[in-house]
């Protein structure tokens, strides 16, 4: 059974960088579209970046476009989220999720309607100004 584990969260100064990792225990990760989802304190979870399984098409929310990069490394069974130019509003728990949704944008924007197959347990990012 596929299992996801996030790592790489922690504290950073505004303007700094962090790299989050989403490690899968199986190579079946290749068949899933993977997304990174941000849940700020007291707010709902939202998709910030997703990468599709077939053509590795990517999607970024307006809030992170130009600052974050999502990368899939199939050999390492890992999807990374490189976070640069961090802002205080980036603070929150970051979850990676997997679903057999073919289009990255569809996962990030309509994951509640489609339903997700799997979530990791999340990693906390705290950005201080």
What does this structure look like?
This protein is mainly β and about 130 residues long. The radius of gyration is 13 Å and the shape is globular. The relative contact order is 0.30. The chain has one helix at about 105-115, and strands spanning about 5, 10-15, 20-25, 35-40, 45-50, 60, 70-75, 80-85, 90-100, 120, 125-129. The strands form 2 sheets. Strands 2, 4, 5, 6, 9, 10 and 11 form a 7-stranded mixed β-sheet that branches. The mean pLDDT is about 95.
What's this entry about, in short?
The chain has 129 residues and is mainly beta. Helix content is 9%, strand content 46%. The N and C termini lie far apart (41 Å).
> Cα distance, first to last residue?
41 Å
Flag low-confidence runs: none
Q: Would you tell me the structural class of the helices and strands?
A: mainly beta
Sketch the topology as an H/E string, one letter per element: EEEEEEEEEHEE
What helical percentage do the residues reach?
under 10%
Radius of gyration from the alpha-carbon trace, in angstroms: 13 Å
The number of helical segments is 1
User: Got a strand count?
Assistant: 11
Query: Strand percentage, roughly?
Result: over 45%
The biggest beta sheet, please? 7 strands, mixed
Whole-number average pLDDT? 95
Question: What coarse outline follows from CA principal-axis ratios?
Answer: globular
């Amino acid at each position: 059974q596929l299992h996801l584990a996030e790592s790489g969260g922690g504290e950073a100064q505004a303007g700094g960088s962090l790299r989050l990792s989403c490690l899968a225990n199986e190579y079946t990760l290749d068949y899933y579209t993977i997304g990174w989802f941000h849940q700020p304190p007291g707010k709902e979870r939202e998709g910030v970046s997703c990468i599709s399984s077939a053509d590795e098409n990517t999607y970024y929310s307006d809030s992170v476009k130009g600052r974050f990069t999502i990368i899939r490394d199939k050999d390492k069974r890992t999807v990374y989220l490189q976070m640069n130019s961090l802002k205080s509003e980036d603070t929150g728990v970051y979850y990676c999720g997997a679903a057999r949704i073919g289009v990255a944008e569809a996962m990030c924007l309509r994951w509640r309607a489609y339903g997700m197959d799997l979530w990791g347990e999340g990693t906390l990012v705290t950005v201080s100004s």
